[in-house]
Specification:
The chain is of the alpha+beta class. It has one domain (4-120): Gcn5-related N-acetyltransferase (GNAT) (Aminopeptidase), CATH 3.40.630. The protein has helices spanning 4-7, 20-30, 83-98, 112-120; strands spanning 35-42, 45-56, 65-74, 102-105.
Length: 134
């Protein structure tokens, strides 16, 4: 199975080497009113997290309040134990409790495991993101 850290040079934080810019990125998100992070713990051990941004769509696009999931991560030793599903369910509960109408996210085309997870959680495939590296 392909993991995110294998798909792109952008995902090299998996080796435990946290760079200063990555720390600032997460720190800024944690200090923002627009961003929410939920952490899953098993016996006081962080097992995974979901990080999302609260957003409001433009009325001419017929979208109301929604969240955009930026990161969903589960530590390797806790994968395939339902933690990612529980984190997604917690994000959905947040939406229901706060009047948000939709959850949006992107997934790498090669990350079949994540796509299967999102399929089982009721996500629909709506768009295809196209990228051209220069």
């Amino acid at each position: 199975m392909v993991e995110m850290e294998d798909l792109s040079e952008m995902n090299k934080l998996a080796d435990g080497e946290i760079k200063e810019d990555a720390f600032k990125y997460f720190s800024d998100r944690l200090n923002s009113e627009r961003h929410v992070v939920f952490v899953a713990e098993i016996k006081d051990d962080p097992a995974g997290f979901i990080a999302f941004e609260k957003k409001s769509g433009q009325s001419f696009f017929d979208r109301g309040l929604f969240i955009h999931v930026h990161e969903l991560f589960v530590a390797e030793e806790y994968r395939r134990k339902g933690i990612a599903s529980k984190l997604l369910e917690r994000a959905e509960a947040f939406c229901s409790e706060n009047g948000y109408e939709m959850i949006q996210l992107s997934v790498n085309v090669e990350n079949i495991g994540a796509q299967e997870l999102y399929d089982t959680q009721g996500f629909d495939r709506e768009r295809l993101k196209m990228i051209k590296e220069l």
